Amino acid sequence: MPGIHIVSNTERLSQEVLTKNLEALLHYDNYYRETLGQGQNLWIGFTGYPGYPFETLKRGDLLVVMDGKIYGHSLRDLEEELTGIASKWKEAGRDLSLTVKAFAEKYDGDYLIFLADLKRGNGLFFNDPLGRLSVYLAQKRGIVISREMGFILHLLKNWLEPDPQGIASYLMFSFPLGERTLYRGIRKVRGGVILRLEEGNIFEENYWKWDLGEKREIQSVRKAAEDLHDIFLDAIKKRIMSFPDDRVILSLSGGLDSRAIALAFKTLSVQYHPVTFLDHEGIYGKDIEIAKEVSKKLGNPTTLIELDPLKIEDIEKLIELKGGLNYIRMSSRIHFLREIKNRFGDRISFYTGDEGDIILPYIQMSSRVKSIEDLVHWLIVRHRVFKEEEVHRITGIDPADIAEEIGNMLAEYPEDSLYHKFLHFLIFERRFKWGFEGEDRNRFFFWSLAPFYSLEFFTYAMSLEEKIKKYHRLYREFLAFLDGDLIDLPRAQWGFPITSKKVYMREFMKWVLFQLPTLTAFLDRNVDKKKVRMRDPALIDYLERCLEKSPAVKSIINVREAKKILFQETGMERERFSAILTVLLTFIKFSDIT
After folding, report:
1. 3-state helix vs strand vs coil in the chain, percent to 5
2. Per-residue pLDDT tens digits for 13-58
3. pLDDT higher than 90, residue 140
4. In angstroms, how far is CA 292 from the centroid of its own chain?
5. Number of structural domains the chain divides into
6. Domain extent for 586
7. Does residue 59 lie in a domain region?
8. Residues in contact with 426: Cβ distance below 8 Å, sequence separation at least 6, in sequence order
9. pLDDT tens digits, 470-484
10. How far apart are CA 248 and CA 533, in angstroms?
């Protein structure tokens, strides 16, 4: 992943070793590496490509790094505030959380900041409140902080240990729970965190708390939609101004979220190129016609990119890029991103409508959930890929251990109501894990932006009472403020527009189904079996060979049980194929030591 890599107090690692590890991250021809600074027990490096947003400045022994972007500002604009934070940090005993929070509240961006005292070999790290840029932390034979999982895995290859609980939760949900990765001692850093590297030790504190139960009073749905409209336009304007030399590309689907961005571009007179993909299986075929109609009405025809079927080389490339944290079902996106770059050049700002569909609507939960235990059961049954007993047979992990971990997470969330705990898990676990890792996959090619995650927009939208969002009333009003005409075009996934009375019937039917989570999960995965089954003999054979070939794989899973479960069906479920092959290939790539 383009970005910063920090090593502190790691035993016997020379400049030569660290530089060599940077070379392993030069994934494409336009990538370069750089050592940014080093001091006593501290080394800072960078890998990236021209156009990736990354700035540094040096003031005496202080090195200031901004990885990512605070929109509308350069690092020099922020120099006084950041050097002020550095001064407070150097004063022993000063609490930095309020100072850093005040900084984060002022600025909208996808960023992390690192302040390095090169003379003393100490460092101060903090990221944005949402943790928009994925960062990984290893505490093995020292401290390693990196934007790319592969840097840590290469650097510590002789000391890697699988995390059985992380592997089990990955098979169950297609992501590891909490801060886990697939390896012990390597974790993902959450958002709103301060890390202090001092005298070879690391100290961690949270400067931001997300409580989705905290609500604001608002006069009406219309007032909330109007406020969000203004915030949204301002957020996009700042993002456009931050990259004046980039071509603006919009990933346009048949849904509402990317449509909202297209309408905002029209309002702001932004010159942009819409692109739409058609996957090989045709799952998103309905999106194509709607996307074409939206772009035609806006006078800006979309470019259609037809994706190849899953290819082994793309699957292996995604593992190399993301270290197993973006599951291989997404490997076809490698083709999509590569085609965009080939057609539009290197300097691209790539916009997506990620997460508008969870920030603005009301998200339903079963009314049968009456306790933490009920909620754990609902989340597992609703979102599982492998069943609990299957995970146990493959990994040996007791399903009760995973349920207990989820229950502990829910209990620690600050929200009081079960509904808001459910929402916290759904957004900060499931959506953030999938969405943020997916955006970072995009950033291997060019900078990716998701305006619905503007801090002010996200904070405002999540503070609204659920009654305002029910039946898509808020989203409908929000789109009406952007453009009253396109609101009547269908949403591809539904087959009817957000203004249709069918929205009410759809929400009622969802409520009925959600009382029976097992049935809902079954329908989600089997409503059209030809679309969710893997039948390519070459890929099935590839999975079988991966199960047999790797010493690391045989140490973490029961191969015989895995084969019994996976190969008993005619046509393996795509999600199951993707989850287990992601795990297998990660350990084959990074853990098999010859």
Report:
1. 50, 20, 35
2. 788 889 889 999 999 999 999 999 988 889 999 999 999 999 999 9
3. no
4. 27
5. 3
6. 532-590
7. yes
8. 358, 363
9. 999 999 999 999 987
10. 35
